[in-house]
Amino acid sequence: MAREQRERLEETVESLARQHMSLEKAMTKSKRNLSDIIHDRPPGEGVVGIFDSDEDDEDFYDAMDASQLPDSTNNGNAFTAAKVEPPVAELETVKSTLSTRTTSRKRRLRIPDKPNDKANLWNIMKNCIGKELSKIPMPVNFNEPISFLQRLTEDMEYGDLLTRASECSTVEESLTYLAAIAVSSYATTSCRTSKPFNPLLGETFEYDRASDLGWRSFAEQVSHHPPVSALHVEHDNWIYYQDFSMTSKFRGKYLQVFPIGTTHFIVKSTGHHYTWNKVCTTVHNIIVGKLWVDQSGEILVKEHQTGASARVKFHPYSYFSREAPRRVTGGVFTSDGTPKFELQGTWDNSMSCAEVLSSDGDDWETAEHMTRWVKNAPLEDSDKIYHFTAMACTLNEPEEGVAPTDARNRPDQRLMENQNYPAANGMKVKLEEAQRARRRARETRIAAEGPSAKYEPKWFVKRECEITGEEIWRFTDEYWQCKQSQSWDRCPVLYLEDEQDEDAT
Fold first, then answer.
1. How far apart are CA 467 and CA 342, in angstroms?
2. Residue among 430, 402, 415 at smallest CA distance from 500
3. 390: three-class secondary structure by DSSP
4. What span, in angstroms and rounded, lies between the C-alpha atoms of 38 and 156?
5. DSSP SS3 for 117
6. Over the stretch 190-205, which tens digit does the pLDDT of each residue have?
7. pLDDT of residue 270
8. Predicted confidence (pLDDT) per residue in 26-46, tens digit
9. Statement: residue 329 has pLDDT above 70
10. CA–CA separation, 390 vs 282, rounded Å?
């Protein structure tokens, strides 16, 4: 009885908090003019030691539920929420030559509510301790109805920060925006604990927002063992690309995900080339309690022509710390290590920067803080739609003319979105079995024909990066031409519906 009352109380508190946040942001937006919003500053000015560390900060505590964590958006400590910054569409008109469309298409605002269909997590997870996450067969009950390729594309939700970075007069100022977008990619992980679908080898996803946001992206699953996803985004002013892989371990009480790969950003007008990494994600209370997610580690954003860099530390949650949860701190430095900007915020809500006026070691005197990024307000009843953002709701929206391998054509994912979990589970097993059959057939051909029979991605090629020396997957720029002519001969058959169509012919 006490447990039921506690759960009802948690749900009530969360609902009230969401309503309060929405009302507060609506009032802020109506009362403050554009100049105030752009230059607003959260508390915490003056001399601050940003790289102070505490050994207790490095400890993980699994007993805490997410509902027991202090709210970083309303905490009275160092990082109080900054006011809402309007979307880039309200600040400027984005003109792009990437698309021939003259008007933006109308996109959906929600997806079907998820059904109340819970699976027994313990029966599934107790046999998975010590195994790689990518090798664990999971029912769709623990998924969200998008592919990892689509989830990777969500890094572009605040893509206007890249445009602003490309327009800055100095590299150091650009780094404040790039540090902000690197942090913003974790904003939804505080409430989204479901797993995206593992892409099939050769699966793709295009997301063309050139007509309204000024950029378009394309992603492909270029490897299955190990799993590697490649993403390319283009804008009139800049190019952004990354390949992403990871290792993951289930530790009993928590799951850790260690990302592998580098993100690249190039400004076309100057040739400035920036790179940065991702940090470790930890999912707590896997077996008992309410799931909650934390981030830890350090992001290094570096510009390779000038040597300037930004460092952002993600402080892991500690029960004994008095600091705001989910906080990030850091700075922007010249090539000789001189601090130019201080960075601070929380990875689930906002980030700001302040020019460093003088410094003595780790003690910096700063000017007023300026907002660089604020998380978009959540949708109404977002908990019913997997805590999706407005952008996430559009990712799996059906679209004509995309490649047959596009994630939106994946039947198990579509069945799950349409609330048919039993059929989605059955289809997921069939798709995975078909993929294993294709792999066995490919291995047979390799044994007979040699390395020439190995699988080759259709839209990306592996090259050595001239900046970092790493091998990376680069977009061939052929996809959009093939889409225009609807020439999909190179696409493999991935989905059973396509196989049935081929059998029928």
1. 27
2. 430
3. helix
4. 20
5. coil
6. 899 889 999 999 999 9
7. 97
8. 444 443 343 333 333 333 333
9. yes
10. 25
